[in-house]
Amino acid sequence: MGYTIGKNKPMTGARSWNAMNGKVRLPLAVGLGALALVRPILNMLGLLERIGQPAASITVTILITVVWIGAAVLLRVEHPVKTLLYAGVAYGIFAIVISAIASPILEGRLQGPIIELENR
Q1: The dihedral of CA 40, 44, 47, 53: what is its sign?
Q2: How far apart are CA 34 and CA 42, in angstroms?
Q3: Cβ 39 vs Cβ 60: under 8 Å
Q4: pTM of the complete model
Q5: Is the C-alpha dihedral spanning 41, 100, 94, 53 positive or negative?
Q6: What was the pLDDT predicted at 105?
Q7: Of 29, 28, 24, which Cα lies nearest the Cα of 90?
Q8: Distance CA 59, CA 109 (A)
Q9: Could you count the other beta carbons within 10 Å of the beta carbon of residue 80?
Q10: d(CA 104, CA 15)
């Protein structure tokens, strides 16, 4: 049995592939990924520690999640899950790049995910 969409019509074969193969609103995904950088930037600046951990990190993460889902719903994105998946990928790429740039400046040495790749 295939996936179900719409009025409980089973999807099979090419039809199910085409339903998952729709267009993503890439500018929205990139923008949402960039918005999520608020949390690591607040962390690098020490603001999350001042507010109080772990509550600050959890609260900021929940707010980002609400904004992401709200944007997908309010903008009536055709493929919201796929768009939010791309937003997560964009966030991951941005976070790795910012960590690689900012950690040597702020900490005096390279830290973060990029160092894990270097050690392999």
Answers
A1: positive
A2: 13
A3: yes
A4: 0.71
A5: negative
A6: 80
A7: 29
A8: 29
A9: 17
A10: 49
Written as one letter, the residue type at 114 is I
Among 27, 36, 35, CA closest to 75: 27
Please report, for the chain, the start and end positions of each structural domain, with discontinuous segments joined by +: 23-119
How does pLDDT run across 1-21, given as a tens digit for each residue? 444 455 555 555 544 445 556
Higher pLDDT, 104 or 57: 57
CA–CA separation, 54 and 43 (whole Å):
11
Give the position of tokens 């900490």. 107
**Stretch among 5-9, 38-42, 72-76, 113-117 having the lowest mean pLDDT:** 5-9
Helices (H), 1-119: 13-20, 26-35, 38-44, 47-51, 55-74, 80-107, 113-119
